[in-house]
Amino acid sequence: xxxxxxxxxxxxxxxxxxxxxxxxxxxxxxxxxxxxxxxxxxxxxxxxxxxxxxxxxxxxxxxxxxxxxxxxxxxxxxxxxxxxxxxxxxxxxxxxxxxxxxxxxxxxxxxxxxxxxxxxxxxxxxxxxxxxxxxxxxxxxxxxxxxxxxxxxxxxxxxxxxxxxxxxxxxxxxxxxxxxxxxxxxxxxxxxxxxxxxxxxxxxxxxxxxxxxxxxxxxxxxxxxxxxxxxxxxxxxxxxxxxxxxxxxxxxxxxxxxxxxxxxxxxxxxxxxxxxxxxxxxxxxxxxxxxxxxxxxxxxxxxxxxxxxxxxxxxxxxxxxxxxxxxxxxxxxxxxxxxxxxxxxxx
Length: 347
What we know:
alpha+beta
């Protein structure tokens, strides 16, 4: 959904410090109209602080935030074309579902007919059109999350901000709500910014992912780019299963401790080679390895292999009958295509 036109949301050199502590280092981020952008990272990495700066709840220490070409850096949240859905929902227990959804429009003193029409429209969007008169305490966690979403969407924000809104739900309900969020995003064509620490959730929802670590953005790109071509060792290790092998580059050629050699452009020095498990295969003449463990997951088999260097390599096979070939202690030869590896200079 990215576009050659000016981004809807543009962050330029935005940072935030609390005294001597840097919560968010200076960063740039462009989000186009219609994008679903996930800000992904571990707890404490600064992703929620970044989201709150976009919302206007926290003022940046430096930098500029623009939405639809307007500088909103110093504007409060009520003056920005954004709305936020919080992890805690923040619903009013003394109001009905419809009254909760309509709350923002009521504060604006919009005409009653308009409020009624837009409330029903928002409830229909989250598939709660028959729940308008129900009290909040009669709703499940997933239904409450939908009410919170409808309350934000009814204000028709240019940018919808979601701060780990599915974290309190059980696994099955989280997957259901992921489907709902994807459907709603496609139906309204809105621009969503979604904070999460769950990389599978980020990949399931977003077309643009910003990976954060210790206040810094390590990489921004599409989910497949982030997964297949991690820019840093942190991204490689944080996003999905992976094997990271040590090696040395000399005069345009890398030699791994495991014994493999290949051409690689770049400066001389230590490197790490990143290989995803599903790219590894049994290969005649490949690196010798010993099977240490094999776990069946139904749709795949995860095999742990010990290399001559003492390093561990993960292989994931979709062959349901592969288990008989990967008994612990078995000797196999493995390899992968050069296009399926990522060479990263070691720090």
